[in-house]
Amino acid sequence: MTLGMQPIAPAPTTFGQPYGWVYVDGSFMPAAEARLSVLANVVSYGTGTFEGIRATWNAERRQLFLLEAPAHYDRMARSARILGMELPYGTADLVAATVNLLRRNDVRTDAYVRPLLMLAGEQLAVRMHDTKSHLFIAATPMPAAYIDTAGVRCMVSTWRRAPDTAVPNRAKVIGSYVGAALAKTEAVRRGFDEAILLTADGYVAEATTSNIFVRVGREWVTPPATDDILEGITRGQVIGLLETDFGVTVDQRRVHRSELYACDEALLCGTAATVVPVTDVDGRPLGPGRPGEVTLALQRELRAIARRDGERHHEWTTPVHEEAEHD
Ligand code: PMP
Question: First CA to last CA across the chain, in angstroms?
Answer without folding.
Answer: 56
